[in-house]
Design goal:
Layout lengths: L1 H33 L7 H47 L4 H4 L5 E2 L6 E6 L4 H4 L2 H9 L3 E6 L9 H15 L6 E3 L15 H15 L3 E5 L3 H4 L1 H15 L8 E5 L4 H4 L6 H7 L2 E4 L2 H12 L7 H9 L5 E7 L1 H10 L1
Helix pairs in contact: 6-12, 7-9, 9-14
């Protein structure tokens, strides 16, 4: 009996010793898996460090060279824009006819500009207005709301009159609607039929041969701007626009082009079919007219006046019934 007891004790002690060794081996394997550490000689460590440093230096060099190329391209493009802008207003360009500061449909004598709010005429259409006036075209303005969003309707009405007079639009050629169903409010839906009736009525009464307004994106994306386009498009689609009247919409562009000012000039001349580019003095006249909308001169609009290409460049697209049909079918 004693022999059996001692055998069991020996077996238990040897078993516990074996399990301890096994646990140590498992812990060692787990550490190697979780925290792998390769043994490197000092020479290998130095070689690895040199290789990493070489890669970093190479990437830094490539970045500097790329940055230098980008800066060089920007400088060359800026110089090209300035030279091209200078050529537009050089007296030799009239004989060369290679560079034109404006292009509109021929024989336009009476143009109707349709906007949504007071200040739209300066903020977006200033170059078009001044260039049409230079071409001896009489410009009429139809503003569909008095801009009463912040309860400043009376103030903005007077600002509109002052700004238009500074742009050469006569007081009798300005129409400002005060309709309850056409309020200055992005949340209020402007009915297409209502706008279309007003536009058509003024087209016929004024005997206009050119209609100018926003495109479908409204330049700034304002719903009231877009509503005017869809009303105009409905008139084109139904064939109610007078046959002699051309329709131009102001092109909306991406944010980079929008605030590139003169740097957008080559792109405009290459891609646009109708455009107006102002000289620096006329650009200042548009900025001064916009400054007359004092109630709207918050900080971001002051930046807009300085950098926006709409202060110096307008590009417009002519639309007709077939264009509208294609756009509707395409969408």
């Amino acid at each position: 009996m004693n022999e059996n007891v001692s055998f069991l004790e020996l077996d238990q002690s040897s078993g516990s010793g074996g399990s301890g060794v096994l646990e140590e081996e498992l812990e060692t394997v787990a550490e190697q898996i979780l925290y792998p550490q390769e043994q490197h000689s000092p020479e290998e460590d130095r070689s690895l460090s040199i290789a990493v440093q070489f890669i970093i230096n190479y990437l830094v060099l490539c970045f500097r060279e790329t940055l230098d190329h980008i800066v060089l391209v920007i400088l060359i493009y800026t110089l090209l824009c300035l030279v091209l802008y200078k050529l537009l207003f050089h007296r030799c360009s009239r004989w060369l006819k290679l560079f034109r500061k404006s292009h509109f449909p021929a024989n336009v004598r009476r143009a109707l500009l349709v906007t949504a709010h007071p200040d739209d005429e300066c903020m977006f259409f200033g170059p078009t207005i001044l260039e049409l006036r230079r071409l001896n075209c009489r410009v009429f303005l139809l503003c569909l709301s008095e801009g009463n969003f912040a309860s400043k309707g009376e103030v903005r009405r007077q600002e509109l009159w002052d700004a238009c007079l500074s742009l050469g639009i006569k007081a009798e050629d300005i129409t400002l609607l005060r309709a309850t169903h056409l309020q200055d409010d992005p949340a209020q839906e402007w009915k297409t039929v209502t706008i279309a009736n007003q536009v058509l009525k003024h087209l016929e009464a004024l005997d206009a041969d050119l209609l100018i307004t926003f495109d479908k994106d409204g330049v700034s994306g304002h719903p009231n701007h877009c509503a005017i386009y869809y009303a105009t498009a409905s008139l084109c689609l139904s064939g109610m626009i007078p046959s002699k009247c051309k329709v131009l919409t102001l092109e909306s562009i991406n944010l980079c082009r929008k605030y590139a000012s003169l740097l957008d000039l080559p792109i405009t001349l290459l891609l646009s079919t109708n455009w107006a580019v102002l000289n620096w003095e006329s650009r200042k006249a548009v900025q001064n007219a916009m400054a007359l909308h004092r109630s709207q001169l918050v900080w971001f609009r002051k930046l807009y006046i300085i950098f926006s290409r709409y202060m110096v460049i307008n590009s417009l697209c002519e639309i007709n019934q077939s264009d509208v049909e294609f756009e509707i079918l395409g969408s």
